[in-house]
Amino acid sequence: MTGSKRFDNYIGGEWVTATEYSTNINPSDLSDVIGEYAKADVAQVQTAIDAARAAFPAWSTSGIQARSDALDKVGSEILARKQELGTLLAREEGKTLPEAIGEVSRAGNIFKFFAGECLRLSGDYLPSVRPGVHVEVTREALGVVGLITPWNFPIAIPAWKIAPALAYGNCVVFKPADLVPGCAWALAEIIARAGFPAGVFNLVMGSGRVVGDAIVNSPKVDGISFTGSVSVGRQIAISCVSRQAKVQLEMGGKNPQVILDDADLKQAVELAVQSAFYSTGQRCTASSRLIVTAGIHDKFVEAMAERMRSIKVGHALQAGIDIGPVVSRAQLDQDLGYIDIARNEGARLVAGGSLVTCDTEGYFLAPALFADSTADMRISREEVFGPVANIIKVADYEAALAMANDTEFGLSAGIATTSLKYANHFKRHSQAGMVMVNLPTAGVDYHVPFGGRKGSSYGSREQGRYAQEFYTLVKTSYIGS
């Protein structure tokens, strides 16, 4: 679009123009153009990979204090600019401004955490079973890593991949989601000024079919960390395994929120609303299956309908708004499609589900809640990735647990109960990577592991100290006297 500011790729320590640019539009106001962002071609991706490969030997053996200082500098600048960056995030992705600022703060804290991890990398020094021999177990950088991130957390997910990759001595080729390049570019610009040598970090924006495929299929890339759809993730896994590259995948979720008869009703309603609808339901940890036992079911449905009447949908930057727009026209069409599917399957629409008119043209949708749904409905099986949830009535705790586990996914699961017995049993028997007791299923800390089971995740965990499992290789050295 003529007159819009252009933002280039960052390759080998230089900002590099492209032959094609994409327009970044605010989903809260379709007249608001954030900018035009470069779309890399295959040749530019290969140049970025070569730059990372050339930088790797020196960077992977560099001093840990320099790494720590650079990462800490990135974190400090992100936190100092959280209002500005949060506004950018809200404009391009559609989170409300408070949520967007919270995500930016999380990104800054992630970089600071891994600045500390540079200084905490440990190993083992062990005696051998043979006299006069000792054993050292150490970790070394994996190599060149390709990082492919989604649109729903445009700065936090890049942060939790980039920061550990750099902390452990890897070089990065980063491809953000084509839909939200603004935060990725802003993060890259901060990293570019933080003191990392040329080639250590590279930003290549563009489509998955061009940029993503080139990264995934390059024999010069030692590992791929991907967050996105199940179908794409599975194809990436096949490609990486075929060439023996390391792979880490975070994919879909159909997360259950169990509400037991003994739950505090007000608390259960609030955590269900937050789980299902905040961030416009566009979180892989969002709970779209509300599994409610018979004794509290009718009261819960009524209380949820009442609570949802107070939810305010509107422009992400407007004060007092609870939920912003859906991220794009395509995603809005998908959400509306699932609402129609649920109706046609026989589920009862309790609240919401209609388009919302605001002062600006955008993709505004009132959160939809269905009741009288069953486990075999598509609305109960498939990930919608929007503000759409359904309530499933079950007889008791045992039925609720079975229903919660009856899914191909296993990312996050929640339970609302005042019973220590049921809470402990659910923690142990839930087939999910993360369990929440009397808390929303969405909302995790940055210093502890993140990941799921079954179709949700593949490979080692992300975040916290567990991130080293993907970004490092273990070496065992034997020393004789």
Explain what this protein looks like in three dimensions.
With 481 residues, the protein is an alpha/beta fold. The chain has two domains: 6-251 and 456-480, Aldehyde Dehydrogenase, Chain A, domain 1; 255-437, Aldehyde Dehydrogenase, Chain A, domain 2 (3-Layer(aba) Sandwich), CATH 3.40.309.10. It is 39% helix and 23% strand. It has 15 helices and 23 strands. The strands form six sheets. Strands 15-16-17-14-13-19-20 form a seven-stranded mixed beta sheet, with helices on both faces. It has a six-stranded mixed beta sheet with strand order 10-9-8-11-12-22, sandwiched between helices. Helix 8 links the parallel strand 11 and strand 12 (246-250). Helix 1 runs parallel beside helix 7. The chain is globular. The chain starts with 5 loop residues before the first strand and ends with a strand. The model has no long low-confidence stretch (mean pLDDT 97).
Task: Looking at this protein, list some descriptive labels.
15 helices; 481 residues; 39% helix; Aldehyde Dehydrogenase, Chain A, domain 1; 7-stranded mixed beta sheet; 6-stranded mixed beta sheet
Using only C-alpha atoms, the radius of gyration works out to 23 Å
Which regions contain 5 or more consecutive residues with pLDDT less than 50? none
**How much beta, percentage-wise?**
15-25%
In one word, what is the shape? globular
Annotated CATH architecture of the largest domain: 3-Layer(aba) Sandwich
Helical content, roughly?
A: 25-40%
Major beta sheet, strand line-up: 15-16-17-14-13-19-20
